[in-house]
Write a structure and sequence with these properties.
With 192 residues, this protein is mainly α. It contains 12 helices and no strands.
Length: 192
């Protein structure tokens, strides 16, 4: 229809039609994306595909940076970029991305899980634990995933972060420690 005609016209204005047959993401596609008319799902898939290829990580980062620049308040886009940067070894830049993801997606279970994982692995264990507490408080279907991640953290680090204000999360964690027969950890948690 008319949208297709508009896109073809833009392609003709921005470059040759031959460019559009190159896959996965061509310069013509990039030009269209810069005008906010691209299929962001396709760009995201291309970035994920590039990220899984051995030498495609720089391309994935570039695609994800483009997506973030077009939608700077998308928590998912910031988290995706953070994942790619971690894979590239740019942990401090990834930290910035995950902090932005938390700013824009502080109620998203997926974002909280991703940020929790990142922070547990890369230094800010207290923030990682707080992210996981939040998931445990709001989403019972993630209990097993959260508790398995918390099993990787010393109970002292967990209790040092403070127990969640939400009673459900605290009770679930305490029950988990008792079921694991970690009575010392349960006692320590109970005393908080």
């Amino acid at each position: 229809g008319s949208l297709r005609l508009l896109i073809v016209s833009l392609i003709l204005l921005t470059g040759s039609v031959a460019e559009t047959t190159i896959s996965p993401l061509t310069e013509a596609d990039n030009r269209i994306c810069r005008t906010y008319l691209c299929d962001e799902d396709r760009v995201t898939r291309d970035a994920y595909d590039a990220q899984t290829k051995g030498n495609g990580l720089p391309s994935a980062i570039s695609l994800l940076q483009g997506l973030v620049s077009r939608d700077p308040v998308s928590a998912r886009r910031w988290a995706d970029l953070g994942d790619a940067l971690v894979q590239a070894g740019a942990v401090e830049n990834a930290r910035i991305c995950f902090n932005r993801a938390l700013t824009y997606g502080h109620d998203s279970v997926d974002i909280l899980m991703d940020a929790g994982d990142f922070n547990l692995k890369h230094g800010d264990r207290a923030l990682g634990v707080r992210c996981l507490w939040r998931v445990l408080a709001v989403s019972p279907e993630f209990d097993d995933a959260v508790l398995s991640r918390l099993d990787q953290v010393d109970v002292g680090d967990i209790s040092g972060s403070g127990l969640p204000a939400d009673g459900r999360a605290a009770r679930k964690y305490l029950r988990h420690l008792i079921e694991r027969r970690d009575l010392a950890g349960a006692r320590r948690t109970w005393q908080l």
